[in-house]
Amino acid sequence: MKYTTHNVKNGDYKENHVLYVGTQTGSFKRVDIFNEDNPYKQTNLQNLDAITKDSKVTALCWADDDKNEIILGRGDSVIRTFECDKNQFCETDLSIPEGKIVGLAWSQDTIVAASDTGKIHILNDAMDIIETGDNISKMRQCSSNRNLVAVGGKERKNNLKVFDLETKKQIFTSKNVPHDNLQLEVPVWDSDMSFVNNNDSCLVTCSRYGYIRFYDYRQQRRPIHNYTDSREQAFNSLTEKDGIIYVGTTTGSLYAFDLKSMKIPLHTYKGATGSISSITVDETGNYLFSSSLDRYVRVYDSKKTHLLYQCYVKSKASEILMRVADDRLLSEHKEASKQTVDVSDEEYETMFNKMQKVNDDASEPSSKKLKLVKHSHMKRHSGIVFRT
Fold first, then answer.
1. End-to-end CA distance of the chain
2. Which of 105, 223, 227, 254 would disulfide-bridge 112, Cβ 3.0–4.6 Å?
3. From the CA atom positions of the chain, what is the Rg in Å?
4. How much is the pLDDT for 360?
5. Distance CA 203, CA 216 (A)
6. Would you state the pLDDT for residue 230?
7. What letter does residue 187 receive in the DSSP assignment?
8. Rounded to the nearest 5°, which phi and psi values hold at 241?
């Protein structure tokens, strides 16, 4: 599929996938890819009037293995829980004292949240706190051992670390690679990380400084494999599936690397023009999902690299999760198949209502007024026309 800015879906892509998308404006929506009548249908799951400029969605994670509950973290330190089967948020929100939430986890029926100030908050009755550093970029949980979380950030003192949530102790801290040819310390910025192959001792990290590193802390503190991009591309998002690492850059590039040999990319996925903000892979490993700050979500064939799906979501997409549509959701769409609803209107109406109105200038000699109107033909991009 050639590069395009239109909403597109490959005819061979028939999986019942659903995307949950968090954005930089604070909106949270569901994209029903499986809907044959309208595969670009978007449902706003959060009241748009309640979001503010600080409500940016900064973290999403599943609260259970069945993927029925989503934990959502925001830039204003608020944590919300969304129930997919009821299609609504829980009435009670949680929060941490300060900082932007950069990672969420679910362990022993308790929500765990990490802030960019370097604190891991275990939101039990006592709200236990684990100090990890002072400039953290991301926290990730181990799927095979939910008591383990990894954190990483900018500068050497915030490099990759692993903590045990049960004992609240650090069990690993990485060691930087040797100095460069000029005997200068190699700068550290672990922008994202992931546990590998469901192994609680193997991790991979990526960096805004253009490196990807693979660790096995049972063997050594320094990385076993290290890839450094010659063009100094800034990697900022990462996920792993079956020994394949998928990394996205701040310039819209998306690559796959084989952990066995990280000398060159295994695959390159094209189409994005904005920073790749979030990546995920389905359970089969056949489909790669990405969100980008160019306001698109995309689906690729992970093996053939083909772009299978692209949808414009109107806001800068910051986080995504994927699940397979359940029977309830499938039946709802069958019943509503005869109705055509443009749910994007609500978001546009809210955006226009919050815009400042243009008033007459008393000193203007003309008596004509400027009137703010929307394009009647607006379908994908917002636009403003001033008429006299």
1. 43
2. 105
3. 22
4. 44
5. 7
6. 85
7. P
8. -150, 120
For the cut 90, the answer to whether the pLDDT of residue 113 exceeds it is: yes
3-state secondary structure of 94: strand
Query: Per residue, what are the HEC states of 32-44?
Result: ECCCCCCCCCEEE
H helices of 202-270, in order, are none
319 and 298 in contact (C-beta within 8 Å)? Answer: no
- How far apart CA 71 and CA 4 sit, in angstroms, is 33
Give the C-alpha separation, 6 to 271, whole Å.
Answer: 11
Q: Is the pLDDT of residue 325 over 90?
A: no
Residue 129, token pair as written in the block: 């706190």
N residues, the chain: 388
Looking at residue 49, what DSSP letter applies? G
Comparison of pLDDT for 387 and 204, the residue scoring more: 204
Question: How many Å apart are CA 67 and CA 45, to the nearest integer?
Answer: 16
Distance CA 92, CA 56 (A): 19
Q: Average pLDDT for residues 149-162, to the nearest whole number?
A: 96
Q: Are 322 and 278 in contact (CB under 8 A)?
A: no
For residue 226, give the amino acid letter.
N
- Three-state DSSP at 287 gives strand
Structure tokens at 105: 């986890």
Using CA atoms, how far residue 167 sits from 7, 142, 217, in Å, is: 48, 16, 18
Rounded Cα distance, 172 and 366, in Å: 71
